[in-house]
C-alpha cells in the first residue's frame, strides 16, 4: 500500500490528475453501460466535452504525442487498480473522453470476430489511425465497424 502511495506521489501533477479522473470515471461508465446502455452513456459523455477545436494526435508534435501516451498509460493503470475488472469498452470510453477533454480528437473503434463457435467483440481507441490502448495490437484480429458510432467518430464532429 505504501509503495503504491509513494509511486502515485512521484507522478507529475498532470499524471496524477489523469489517473484520478480515470479511476473515478471507470466505475461510473461501467454502471452507466449496465443501466442505460451504450448509446445513452455515449451521449452523456459527449455532452460533457468542451466544444473547443480539436486536432488529431499529430505525431510531429512531441508534446501532444507525450500527452496522448501519458493519458493511455494512466487509464491502463487506473483500470488495473479499480474495483472489479474494467472491460475494453469501459477503458476505451474513459481514454476517449480524457483525450477529447485535452483537445485531442480520437475515436472509439469496435470490432468483432468469430473464434470457433464464439462471437467476440473488442473496443479500442484510435488517433490518426493508431490504436492507443493496444500494446499488442490485438485489435488487428477484429473486423472494425466503420461508421457504427458516429458521435464518437472524428469525421462526424
Write up this protein.
The chain has 157 residues and is of the alpha+beta class. The chain has one domain. It is built from five helices and four strands, in the order αααααββββ. The chain has helices at 2-10, 13-36, 38-47, 62-81, 88-101; strands at 107-115, 118-127, 130-131, 143-144. The chain has a four-stranded antiparallel β-sheet, covered by helices on one side.
Poorly predicted tracts of residues: 153-157
Q: Label the structural class.
A: alpha+beta
**What's the end-to-end separation, in Å?**
43 Å
Strand order of the largest sheet: 3-2-1-4
Total tally of structural domains: 1
Tally of DSSP helical segments = 5
Give a nutshell description of this structure.
49% of the residues lie in helices and 15% in strands.
Features:
alpha+beta; 4-stranded antiparallel sheet; 4 strands; globular
Please give the structural blueprint:
Elements: H1 2-10, H2 13-36, H3 38-47, H4 62-81, H5 88-101, E1 107-115, E2 118-127, E3 130-131, E4 143-144
Antiparallel strand pairs: 1-2, 1-4, 2-3
Helix pairs in contact: 2-3, 2-4, 2-5, 4-5
Amino acid at each position: 500500500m505504501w509503495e503504491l502511495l509513494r509511486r502515485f506521489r512521484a507522478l507529475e501533477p498532470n499524471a496524477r490528475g489523469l489517473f484520478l479522473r480515470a479511476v473515478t470515471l471507470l466505475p461510473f461508465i461501467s454502471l452507466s453501460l449496465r443501466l442505460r446502455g451504450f448509446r445513452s452513456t455515449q451521449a452523456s459523455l459527449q455532452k460533457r466535452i468542451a466544444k473547443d477545436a480539436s486536432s488529431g494526435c499529430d505525431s510531429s508534435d512531441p508534446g501532444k504525442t507525450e500527452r496522448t501516451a501519458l493519458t493511455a498509460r494512466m487509464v491502463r493503470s487506473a483500470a488495473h487498480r479499480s474495483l472489479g475488472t474494467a472491460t475494453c469498452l469501459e477503458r476505451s470510453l474513459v481514454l476517449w473522453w480524457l483525450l477529447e477533454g485535452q483537445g485531442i480528437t480520437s475515436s472509439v473503434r469496435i470490432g468483432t470476430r468469430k473464434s470457433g463457435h464464439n462471437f467476440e467483440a473488442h473496443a479500442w481507441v484510435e488517433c490518426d489511425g493508431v490504436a492507443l490502448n493496444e500494446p499488442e495490437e490485438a485489435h488487428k484480429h477484429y473486423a472494425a465497424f466503420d461508421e457504427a458510432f458516429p458521435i464518437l467518430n472524428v469525421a462526424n464532429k
